[in-house]
Amino acid sequence: MVVLAQLIRPGAACAIGTFTSNVDMKSGAPAFGTPEYMRATQMTGQMARFYGLPLRASGCCAANVPDGQAIWETMNSLWSAVQAGAHMVYHAAGWLEGGLIASPEKFIMDCEILQQIERYMDPVICAAGADEIATDAVAEVGDQGHFFGTRHTQERYTTAFYEPFLSDWRNFEAWEEAGGIWTAQRAHQIFHDIIAQFEPPPMEDAIRDELADFVARRKAEGGAPTDF
Length: 228
Hints:
With 228 residues, this protein is mainly alpha-helical. It has a domain at 1-122. The protein has 10 helices and 5 strands; from the N terminus they run αβαβαβββααααααα. The strands form 2 sheets. It has a 3-stranded parallel sheet with strand order 1-2-3.
């Protein structure tokens, strides 16, 4: 396709898009986020660098519900995109059921993954001064006590580590006492909280009515069924 584009319009801006994966040999259904998918993405990244073209990758999975499978397959997809040097990622959040649906809960869960990857990719600053090593705090605490209450910790605890908005890092007893809410349930609540706080942008009534009429007309024309 890149060659055809150049034949028609030499110098046309192009990008390489990778979406190669294997299928489930038991059912024939497409499989995403697999080791083969990761390798194909990384190989395409090598081709993109060889030809000097930007790379497009995806964050996809074959899972049908926002569960553990959905997360590890999406993690595989997103990390392969990072390792391949992708310049843009389609479907970075929300992909479910092999791309047939977009899940609000999965979108929230994927945003947590994306933020953690972004944090991981921050440049490492190798400072080794007395303040960074916290020599005063070490001397203050000595061989007893802990560092949570020291000035050094209090000045840095809000920024030193990634702070999750969805993950629950409490131990089992504290998590259970708080209701024992699983990840997808927490994501479901966050999704509803966001929707409840949403304020529609200002829009003229005539434009809003025109858009509503367009949506109603396209639904009446048929296509994939929708609950909305």
